Amino acid sequence: MKNNASENITELSQINFVHEALRTTASAVINRAYNLQNGDTLQGFNLAFTSWITILVFYLEASEKYLEQHLKQLLFERNYADKNTNNALIIWFTGLSKSNHDRQLKRIEDVFSILHIEIGKTSLITRTIQHLTLGILRLKIAQEDYLETQEESLIPLILKNSTPIKQLHFLKHMLIDQESEDPKWIIKWVIGQLDPHGKKLVLDLEKRLDILI
Amino acid sequence: MKYGKLILVDPINIMHLLHKAFIAQSIKCEHLLTSNFTCGNLIPFQKAFEFSERLLAHHINIEDLYMTSKILDSPAARVNESEHVELRDKASDIIGLFAGENSIILANYAQKTILASNRSEHEDITETTKAILTVLSQTIGQPKMAKRKMRDLYERVVSLRFLESDHFENEESFIATQIAPNMPKEKQLEIAKHLLVDQSCENSGWIIEWLISRFDLDDQRILNNLILHL
After folding, report:
1. Within a domain: residue A2?
2. Number of folded domains in chain A?
């Protein structure tokens, strides 16, 4: 995303700030794993990992619920292309969503199973550190494949076919957690991961979301 | 492991130094892959990995043939042999992956997606794959698939290194410790000779040459002292 040209940033493309924050967090967690030493404990690492997973799972579920729903509606309304392509797109998105979702959840479970076994132990050994690092690496790669697919295909397709207001409504679903006591926890987290320019853009977006009916 | 004046008390313990060199070679492969990640050039990695695979294949074949097969009624020896099978499979999967064409990877990716969608109306998978590939080539495209392939490769290469590391640790703990006190030194020297000298090759000393170029001075002395007895 071009951070230096705010006038070129469409509403929906700001979802990439969430991607950027997820990538930054994943990199920080894998670096922590690479830096674990024999004799270390997992307490700090566990907190960092859990924080990443909370956001990732929320984002996966919101994407599954709203992103594909939004796209399917667009394809239906606009009759975007010929019937065959429309059908292929829907099959692809459904399959893609399911396979990516399952792949990431499986990898999250794998890491948690290592953490749950090891968390009570007083100190780590090389073998555990390696298994943990590999688990985190696999999850980071699965996340990257997923985010890249959204950026390269789903989001451009939606962008091409929806109005800025519709895009804002969609972003509201993705960035505001209506079920939480603190509905803006995602936005706050994203802002915490960005550089000053990105922070300003997301704060501006937050204001627009606030006045959205 | 006892070195005593840089001489191995038990010749079988040369395996520790070999394992150390193999892990260093695997780390080198990982670095070659990550340093060429952006440009997508697989050739430096491919060359290094093929060499690693040759080393590993020789090493585990010799161990199966001359070392663990001689230890009868030992569950640890059988586990060791099955770990060798897993290592061989993982290494050959990697070679298969970098030999694969991007277009095949793209087609496989599309087909996996169709299958995951669980939709009833796509009996004609070939037709749907074709339509999806058209969409993919307009959206993700070959360069992105190449990046995906690099990530997949990297994951497999790291996974192989950790598997090697676990296996070497098991072998040193459960096999070498059985052999060292129970097998005569001459027999141990014979295994060490097979591990270090590739009789099937015209240049039978290629493993020793490689080790010497990788070892620090102390390890070189240990190796040279051992070679004098082979």
Report:
1. no
2. 1
Q: What is the pLDDT of residue B122?
A: 46
Q: What predicted TM-score, i.e. pTM, was given to this entire model?
A: 0.85
CB atoms near residue A163 (< 10 Å): 9
Report the distance separating Cα A171 and Cα A189, nearest Å: 15
Residue B75 neighbours by CB under 8 Å, 6+ apart:
none
pLDDT of A123-179, one tens digit each?
A: 788 899 999 999 999 999 999 989 988 888 778 878 877 888 988 988 999 999 989
Contact A152 B144 (CB under 8 A): yes
Indicate which of B23, B37, B112, B114 best probes the interface with A, i.e. most A CBs within 10 Å of its own CB: B114
Give the domain CATH number at A144. 1.20.120
Domain presence at residue A77: yes
Distance from CA of B106 to the nearest CA of A (A): 13
DSSP output for A43-90: HHHHHHHHHHHHHHHHHHHHIIIIIHHHHHHHHHHHT-S-HHHHHHHH
Q: Residue A205 belongs to what domain range? A: 12-212
ipTM of the complex: 0.81
* Integer Cα distance of B106 and B60 in angstroms: 34
Do the domain assignments include residue A107?
A: yes
